[in-house]
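[User] Could I get a sequence and C-alpha cells?

[Assistant]
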Amino acid sequence: MRIAKEDVPVKINAPGAIARVATEFGDASGYGKFGGEYFSLGAGADLEPLLKGLDGDLCQAPHWGYLIEGQITVTYNDGTEESVKGGDLFYWPPGHTVRVGEDAELILFSPQEEHGRVLEHLRVRMGA
C-alpha cells in the first residue's frame, strides 16, 4: 500500500499548520520492538536473488516508511507490483521483494526481530 502526500486526507488546515493522516495504515499487533532504518539504494539494485532461502524467497518483515527520493518497485507474494515514488508513504506487508528503478533514499520502521533476521540473511548471501 502506498499513498502520495497529496492523497493523504487533511485533518487540520490552519495558518502555518497542515496535518495529514492516513488511518488503518497496516497492523503492528503481534510484533515487539521496532527499529527505525535509513536506507540508500542504488538504481538497479534487486533484492530478489538475495532473498532466496527465506520463507517464500521473500522478505517476511512488514515495513512502514517514507520514500524521500527515487523510485522502487515492490513485488508481493501474489505477483502484484506497486511503484513507490519519492514523497510517498508506504506499507509493505510480509511477503515482498524490491528492486530500485532510480537511486533511492528511504526511511523504514520495521519489527526489529523479524527484519533483523532478513538483514542477517542478506549479509550472508552477499558474503559479508
Residues 33-125 form a domain with the Jelly Rolls fold (CATH 2.60.120.10). The longest helix spans residues 112-125. The chain has a mean pLDDT of 92.
